[in-house]
């Protein structure tokens, strides 16, 4: 690989609780399982690193126990944190409720990861610069990241995230103009465009990007829709038994970035990303993307079967 995935933030800690159902307002349920793991942007960087990419994390991380957990997890995946620990506080926490269908619901308490990235390195045309829509919700961080994306020669990979409607329209337009790859799930794509289907939304989004950009609309078990160079392609997903959808889109983004960095053709890169996401949902937890060897074995088995 000649380039790096530079992740602009933000990694936090996921408190994941499996519940029989979401509690009603004022109600309570007992979780059947509780774990505390690094999450958020960690899911993307771990997926890319496991797929063989060189990965830099340029976002913030705190000086408390949550920051310690994040730094240890990044190091274990071979990911380099380019910023020093932020003495202003600790890393934030996301409470993730996972119901029996595998669907997940989030409540996030932000920390120092929402600050403008102090460790954002200079990038080149060989790099992929990852930007999360969560980062665009914080005015100071949004301003610095949009400016960095506009000035960078790297391929900007934008994942809007579920709070797309909370980002000001003018900011979206600037960010989209700087984007080389837009990867979003079907719900977010519909919110951004008002279109009823993933395919229609993908086409509408492509018309808002520059001519050489690509759109990937992830649609769960249905696979994804890709718009690139004027062509619209539906890419099916492998059939699996999902137990936890948390982190599936992040696995898709991370592996797609790693494959593009390695020079993999677009059609194969998207197929491998979809297979990685399918494998991820068969495992409990947020950062469940497979290693490159696991993904190769899964694809070989699917081809043989």
From TrEMBL:
Short name of one Pfam family: PfkB
Domain named Carbohydrate kinase PfkB: residues: 6-288
Name of the molecule in the record: PfkB family carbohydrate kinase
GO molecular function, one term: kinase activity
Top-level taxon of origin: Bacteria
The entry's keywords: Kinase, Transferase
């Amino acid at each position: 690989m000649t380039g790096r995935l530079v992740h602009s933030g933000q990694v936090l800690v996921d408190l994941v609780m499996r519940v029989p159902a979401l509690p009603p307002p004022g109600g309570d349920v007992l979780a059947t399982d509780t774990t505390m793991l690094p999450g958020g942007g960690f899911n993307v960087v771990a997926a890319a690193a496991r797929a063989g990419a060189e990965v830099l994390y340029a976002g913030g991380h705190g000086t408390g126990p949550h920051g310690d957990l994040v730094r240890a997890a990044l190091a274990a995946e071979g990911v380099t944190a380019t910023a020093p620990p932020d003495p202003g506080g600790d890393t934030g926490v996301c409470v993730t409720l996972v119901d029996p269908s595998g669907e997940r619901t989030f409540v996030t308490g932000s920390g120092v990861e929402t600050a403008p990235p102090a460790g954002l390195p200079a990038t080149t045309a060989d790099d992929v610069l990852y930007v999360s829509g969560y980062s665009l919700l914080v005015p100071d961080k949004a301003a610095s990241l949009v400016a960095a994306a506009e000035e960078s020669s790297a391929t900007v990979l934008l994942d809007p995230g579920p709070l797309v409607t909370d980002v000001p329209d003018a900011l979206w337009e600037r960010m989209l103009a700087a984007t080389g790859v837009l990867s979003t799930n079907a719900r977010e794509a519909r919110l951004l465009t008002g279109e009823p289907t993933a395919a229609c939304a993908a086409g509408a989004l492509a018309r808002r990007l520059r001519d050489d950009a690509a759109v990937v609309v992830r649609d769960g078990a249905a696979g994804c829709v890709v718009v690139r160079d004027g062509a619209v392609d539906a890419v099916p997903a492998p059939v699996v038994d999902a137990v936890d959808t948390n982190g599936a889109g992040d696995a898709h983004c991370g592996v797609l970035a790693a494959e593009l960095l390695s020079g993999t053709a677009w059609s194969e890169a998207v197929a491998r990303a979809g297979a990685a996401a399918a494998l991820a949902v068969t495992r409990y937890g947020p950062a469940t993307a497979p290693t490159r060897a696991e993904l190769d074995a899964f694809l070989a088995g699917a081809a043989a079967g």
